[in-house]
Structures are given as structure tokens and as C-alpha cells.
Amino acid sequence: MALEDEIYRDPPSTFEQNYRCYPVSFIEKSHLEKGDKIIMPPSALDRLAYLQIDYPMLFELKNPSASKVSHCGVLEFIADEGLIYVPYWMMENMLLQEGDIVNVKNASLSKGTYVKLQPHTTDFLDISNPKAILETSLRSYSCLTTGDTIMVAYNNKKFYIDIVETKPSPAISIIETDCEVDFAPPLDYKEPERPLKSKVPPEVEEEPPTKVPKFNPFSGSARRLDGKPAETVAAPLVQPQKTEATTSGTNGSMPSSSGSRKRSGKLVFGSTADQNSNGTPKATMKEAKQDSSKKEEAKKEEPKFQAFTGKKYSLKN
């Protein structure tokens, strides 16, 4: 009965095996660096078929010495027995060296609905359409694990991207699923520095109000009505000084105030009678005399009109 029970008992549904890992470049399959597919030995395929593992086959890779865990898919079963070939970027994530022991276990992952990515450099964001490039590159991946760093190759460059967050679980399957993709700022991104406001005292900041020139009447130069050049410049206008009225004689007449008016700076047209007595300069008196003498000479030189001084003509022949 014990043998019959073992024959009809359901086979275990868990595949778990230890292998030595090497990079995929060892078997001239460096193109597998653009995804997360591994190469396993033929014996693994027989074991998986016996366990009736459903497709797509997903596996959990674990480094026992460093307690690092990741997930991957399988492409072929052509590796030598006891060996598996893994993309080098996955070996770096798990801190594996060539020939280290890695534990391989089948896994069932839920389909992803959300993933948040963080590029290492801002060069990835300089691509014209990074989401389209990422969508094309992720077709070579079977699953994503939070904390991993994947590699995306584009235009002969390698861009490394961190898996910051995945939903609905820390490890998700991205095969035939619609997954929302979000980006975090790149690791080398620096916010532009804001210019510091220079502290200037308020006296310098506030400009003094511009002074509007006031209108000053009678501030131009003097010109004579007869066109001759002005000989003297009129003094600025000054308000007349108040003089006290005094009586002289017995009739009580007021003294003449013509001298005070002239001293006050007012213009007096056609009167030069009292200039010498009121303190005008001698030079101006001489000039006035010279002008008058010149006018008299000019009048003498002009010929006077004399009536009936022409020739006499007779109306008779």
C-alpha cells in the first residue's frame, strides 16, 4: 500500500535547485544582456515538465551568501549540467561573481499594474520619447522586482534604471499586461539654483525724485527795440523797499521818491535825468554822452531837404 500511495500521490509543484552561474557572454549570447532571460540545463526542463509548471515559467534567484533576491524568466535549456547563464547586470544586482552558487526556485507572480522608475542619469530624459524606448526595451523582460537596477540599451548607450516601486506586489509579471509607468527624478538631477536677492540699503534702491525746473519770468537776455546791441544788463527784479514818508518845510509836501524807485532795480524807459546823482557808474554816463554826440553828428551829416533847388525849365521853346 505504501508504494501505491507514492505512485498515485500528486507530484510536488515546487522546483528548487542550486547552480553555478556565469555571464551569458560565456556562450556568445551577449544579446541577452538586454533582458532578464537565463539559460538553464536540459535536466531542468525535464524536471519542470514533470512538475507541470505552467507557462510562462518565472523563477526566483537568490544569493545565499548576500541574501539578495531577484526574479527572471528562461529562454533556453542548453546549458551544461549544473550551470546556468545569467545576464551580467543581474549578477551585479545580486553581488554574484563568476562561478558562485545561486539558488533557483520557480515563482508565481501577479500581473503588474504600476511601476515607478528612476534613471541614474539625466541623459535618459534627453531622449526624444523615453517612454516609448522604455516600452520597447521592457518587451525583453518577464518580470520586475523592487530594488533591482535594470539596463536599457539605446543608440549604442547603456542606461541604468532603478525599480523604485511596483504594484500590487514587490515583484510583478509584465507579460501581456497594461502597466502604468511613472518616473522619479534622476539620481544626478540638481535643481537650478535660484539667484540670491542682493541686499541693497533702501536709500540706494529709492531713486530721488527728479527736480522739475520752475518758471522764472524775465530771465532772458535784454534786447533793444532799435536793433542795436544792449549796452547794460538789467539787474534782477527786487521788490521795492519801503521808505518812510517825511515832511519837509511848512507846506508838508512829500519828498521825491524817484531815486528810491530807480535804486530798487525797476526798468525806467526814456529817463536818464538823475542817473549820475543816484550813483550810476561813470562809464555808463560817458557811453551815453558818446551815443548822443554820434547821433547829433549823424543828423548834421544828413543833407536837409531844400525846396525849389532844381534847374529851371521854360515851357516856351
Notes on the structure:
This protein is α/β, with parallel strands linked by helices. Among the domains are: 16-106, Beta Barrel (Barwin-like endoglucanases), CATH 2.40.40; 114-183, Vcp-like ATPase, Chain A, domain 2, CATH 3.10.330. It is built from seven helices and twelve strands. It has helices at 2-8, 42-51, 88-93, 130-137, 202-205, 258-263, 282-301, and strands spanning 16-23, 37-39, 58-63, 68-76, 83-86, 101-107, 114-119, 143-145, 149-154, 157-167, 171-173, 180-183. The chain has a six-stranded mixed β-sheet. Strands 9-10-7-12 form a four-stranded mixed β-sheet. Strand 3 and strand 4 form a beta hairpin. The longest helix is centred in the last third of the chain and has 20 residues, at 282-301. The radius of gyration is 59 Å and the shape is rod-shaped. The chain starts with a helix and ends in a 16-residue tail after the last helix. Mean pLDDT is 75; it is low at 1-11 and 240-281.
Put the structure in a nutshell.
This protein is an alpha/beta fold and 317 residues long. Helix content is 19%, strand content 22%.
Task: Indicate the percent of residues in helices.
Answer: 10-25%
Low-confidence stretches: 1-11, 240-281
Strand content: 15-25%
Q: Give me the CATH fold name of the domain at 16-106.
A: Barwin-like endoglucanases
Going by CATH, the architecture of the domain at 16-106 would be: Beta Barrel
Helix-strand sequence: HEEHEEEHEEHEEEEEHHH
**The CATH homologous superfamily of the domain at 16-106:** Ubiquitin fusion degradation protein UFD1, N-terminal domain
Distance between the termini: 193 Å
The CATH class of the domain at 16-106: Mainly Beta
Order of neighbouring strands in the sheet with most strands: 2-4-3-6-1-5
Q: From the helix content, strand content and strand pairing, which structural class follows?
A: alpha/beta
- Average per-residue pLDDT, rounded, comes to 75
Number of beta-strand segments: 12
> What is the approximate shape?
rod-shaped
